[in-house]
Amino acid sequence: MQAYIQGRNVNLTFRPPNREPVRALSGFDIDIREGEFLSIVGPSGCGKSTFLNVLLGLIKPDSGELTIHGKPIRGPGTDRAMVFQEFGLLPWRTVQSNVELGLELKGMASAARREISQRLIDMVGLAGFEQHYPHELSGGMKQRVGLARALATDPDVLLMDEPFAALDAQTRDLMQIELLRIWNAARKTVLFVTHQIDEAIYLSDRVMVMTKRPGHAKKIFPIDLPRPRAYEMRVTPAFNELKLEIWQTLKDEITA
User: In terms of Cα–Cα distance, which of 192, 144, 190 is closest to 40?
Assistant: First the structure.
């Protein structure tokens, strides 16, 4: 059976003017199941974010092919949405109008937009903050708005590029718990880029370790830990054995 998202021999080289070319991705292969939560870890600069942008359709690879449901990715589409590290909220729009942005751009009627945005605001735990502006929100609340906005257009695939990196440690832990709750409710296919091995294991069905640049998949680890996942599972032997194994694989690339 064909994978829901499939990549075969994806290659990409950046050619900035007056500088040496940079090979970002080389021979990148991947297979992702529908509804799967896959995290990607790798050395800094290995092409993790670049791969997400190729999958989003913002960057065209030099060769190879990426498909979703058997259809080649030729550019951006409503079947994919991105959640960024920097929140990306429009400061002049309220929580509700930020969440509704994509629906507004699609020309959806006001009443329908309001119904969808309210359901998602409730889902991400921001009921009562609909009319607040971004400067009135904490970092964790801003990221919840960004997640609700990404879900509003009902994408099949959610791409998350280090979405919790700007948060303090306690807020980050809480957002991981919230993300699992939301993912369990929405059941989107998620690709999640992170530098934190603990975070990757806790959230994911599988964790992919990328090589140093030019990046490709070095090894994919199945995370055979039961769901739903309690935060306390991070101190179990099974969790820490996985963490050590992933770290040893990653360390070889960082120090190469």
Answer: 192
- How far is Cα 171 from Cα 241, in angstroms, rounded to an integer? 25
Q: In terms of Cα–Cα distance, which of 69, 41, 54 is closest to 13?
A: 54
149: nearest Cα among 116, 171, 125 = 116
Q: What pTM does this model have?
A: 0.91
* Three-state secondary structure call for residue 256: coil
Phi, psi of 243 (to 5 degrees): -60, -45
Instruction: State pLDDT tens for residues 31-81.
Output: 999 999 999 999 999 999 999 999 999 999 999 999 999 999 999 988 999
Provide the residue range defining the domain that includes 197: 5-79+155-254
201 and 178 fall within a common domain:
yes
CA distance 202 to 199: 5
Q: What is the CATH number of the domain that holds 26?
A: 3.40.50.300
Question: Same structural domain for residues 71 and 167?
Answer: yes
| Shared-domain flag, residues 194 and 246 | yes
Q: Please give the tally of structural domains in the chain.
A: 2
